[in-house]
From TrEMBL:
Residues 32-46 have a biased composition (Gly residues). Gene3D superfamilies: Periplasmic binding protein-like II (3.40.190.10). It holds the Pfam family SBP_bac_8. One of its GO terms (biological process) is maltose transport. GO terms for molecular function: carbohydrate transmembrane transporter activity; maltose binding. GO terms for cellular component: ATP-binding cassette (ABC) transporter complex, substrate-binding subunit-containing. Keywords: Signal, Sugar transport, Transport. It comes from Haloarcula limicola. Belongs to the bacterial solute-binding protein 1 family. This is Extracellular solute-binding protein. Residues 25-61 are annotated as: Disordered. InterPro entries: Maltose/Cyclodextrin-bd, SBP.
Length: 428
């Protein structure tokens, strides 16, 4: 099972890379559209971001699937409405509560969408199962309009399997209604959460969901790693450096957090103004803005020992198997994906309102991005892209379980991670 972050986030009901894709299983064989300079076909887009082939052929209707928070969903619906009003083609959007399960059952049955939206770490497994397909030789967009990281994330096995529109990771967010001085180091951050921890009065120093993705910055801070997607994939979760990362979390953060490690209670504590600091992603900002909470997003502070190294993701519009049949529906899906990912107004709006980190170079390289986005971008720069290798799918769940066991005191970090490593290898 992959890291189903957005399904996890949706449980709360109102809440939502500038590094090399070294961890992704990407091959540059030039297939399906060639290399970075030529895998986008003619490379032409209209000034409004639309495909240069948008007006060719009969109009089509395509289905787009996604799994978003309530606040994100309203924006997505507005964007699709604008596309349908402006273009010949029509997109029928659907918010899916369990996108992974639904795509896994619907696509093989020929009932799936033309495109769907998720982070790049699904690429390996979905491609190997035949759920997604390359469309590089059918695209009009020049892939060079995206950052190098985004271009690499959009390819698997040399094929352009989707188009990228944003990067994401988690980073510290400070409640400035409570905290007077934003910490500039991890030591200062720990002192801050200690100072403002008062659970008897419903106030916590830190709210922090405990799962693999959210805690990856500390788990990999001392040289440890989850998984290396080499020719002979390597699992690192039982190594000393990784264990040390979990020990750091349990020793320094657990005492100042709500007792339930799940996303909903942790996020709620900060969203309701009852925590000094949280560590969360850009999808959480809409809820914070709705609560009129004063906050400051900061990059991961410096550590006296180690360096925070969070997992990062690139959001893609994936090309589903239904695209293989071609025709007007496939043209509609490609046109929408190209328009969505190259429309500067939408990309800038997502950055300003939802903290999405742009990967469209004309926006990403501008100097007018909000401070919140710059902070998230800095943490992306510090991080490591999630592996897209199919075997990584077996890593998330057992590590999640190990983290909760260690957090609850049911096992030491070393015991919990050793057990998880055995479970993962048995699944492999």
């Amino acid at each position: 099972m992959t890291m189903d972050r957005r399904t996890l986030i949706k449980q709360l009901g109102g809440i939502g890379a500038a590094t090399a894709i070294a961890g992704c299983s990407v091959q540059e064989d030039g297939g399906d559209g060639g290399g970075d300079g030529g895998d986008g076909g003619s490379g032409g887009t209209d000034s409004d971001g639309s495909s240069g082939t948008e007006s060719q052929g009969p109009a089509g209707t395509a289905t787009a699937w996604y799994s978003l928070s309530e606040s994100e969903l309203a924006t997505r619906q507005d964007i699709i409405k604008e596309f349908n009003e402006q273009k010949r083609h029509t997109i029928e959007g659907a918010d899916i509560s369990d996108l992974q399960q639904k795509t896994s059952s619907a696509i093989p049955a020929g009932e799936g969408p033309q495109i769907f939206d998720w982070a790049h770490d699904w690429a390996g497994n979905t491609y190997e199962q035949g759920f997604i397909v390359g469309q590089g030789d059918q695209l009009s967009v020049d892939m060079n309009v995206y950052t190098e990281t985004a271009r690499q994330a959009a390819k698997y096995d040399g094929k352009v399997i989707g188009l990228p529109y944003g990067a994401e990771t988690v980073t510290p967010i400070v409640n400035t209604d409570i905290v007077d001085s934003v910490p500039s180091s991890v030591d200062e951050m720990i002192s801050t959460i200690e100072k403002h921890h008062d659970p008897d009065n419903g106030q916590y120093g830190l709210s922090y969901p405990i799962n693999s993705y959210f805690t990856s910055g500390w788990l990999q801070a001392f040289g440890g790693y989850f998984f290396k997607a080499d020719s002979d994939p390597q699992l690192g979760i039982a190594e000393d450096e990784f264990v040390r990362g979990l020990e750091f979390i349990v020793e320094n953060f657990k005492p100042y957090m709500p007792k339930d490690p799940k996303y909903s209670p942790q996020a709620a504590a900060f969203n309701e103004g009852n925590a000094a600091i949280t560590i969360n992603g850009p999808w959480s900002l809409a809820a914070l803005n709705g609560n009129d909470l004063n906050y400051e997003v900061i990059p991961f502070p410096e550590m006296s020992e180690g360096t925070p190294n969070p997992y990062t993701g690139i959001q893609l519009w994936y090309f589903a198997k239904a695209m293989e049949s071609g025709g007007p529906s496939a043209a509609a899906a490609r046109t929408f994906a190209e328009w969505y990912t190259t429309n500067e107004d939408h990309i800038r709006s997502l950055a300003e309102n939802q903290g999405s980190i742009p990967v469209l170079k004309s926006v990403a390289q501008g100097d007018d991005l909000p401070a919140t986005v710059q902070a998230f971008s800095s943490s992306v720069d510090m991080g490591t892209p999630m592996p897209a290798h199919p075997k990584m799918d077996d890593v998330w769940g057992p590590v999640d379980s190990a983290l909760v066991k260690a957090f609850n005191g049911d096992a030491t970090p070393e015991q919990a991670l050793t057990t998880a490593a055995k479970d993962i290898r048995s699944n492999w």
